[in-house]
TrEMBL record:
PANTHER family: BLR6218 PROTEIN (PTHR44379:SF2), OXIDOREDUCTASE WITH IRON-SULFUR SUBUNIT (PTHR44379). Pfam families: Fer2, Fer2_2. It comes from the Bacteria. CDD domains: fer2. This is (2Fe-2S)-binding protein. Gene3D superfamilies: 3.10.20.30, [2Fe-2S]-binding domain. Residues 1-77 form the 2Fe-2S ferredoxin-type domain. GO terms for molecular function: 2 iron, 2 sulfur cluster binding; metal ion binding; oxidoreductase activity.
Amino acid sequence: MAYTLTVNGSPHTVDTEPSTPLLWVLRDLLELVGTKYGCGVAQCGACTVHLDGVPVRACVTPVSRVGARAVTTIEGIAANPVGARVQEAWKSLDVPQCGYCQAGQIMSATALLAATPKPTDAQIDEAMDGNLCRCATYPRIRKAIKSASGQAEA
């Protein structure tokens, strides 16, 4: 079945089964490989993308449920001023260690700051819950979120 998706501001038509996870459409059909496969059951956050600015797990989101909503991936997040600030904070504070989970972390952090420009530590914890980092860069992630929000690290 053919689906036309708006991904990072551009329309793309793909021919796939309705149940195909958005993750595989992005990676295999559109060759946008920044979004990672982690667990396949929406528990790790590596596959996080935005649908109309809301973070979702692409590994469990069937392409048939995307509809007319705009898909934003890590490749397109810098077009969003908040996303650009988050990415700059990530780079300036050297957040990634292995880097595998960081696309999902950045996507969740960007959604948080878009909704809550000056989040508290509790709001950061809530928004980032479910984004796992095997390298345990959580203190640097929090510091980068605070930096991108213009707040000093507490």
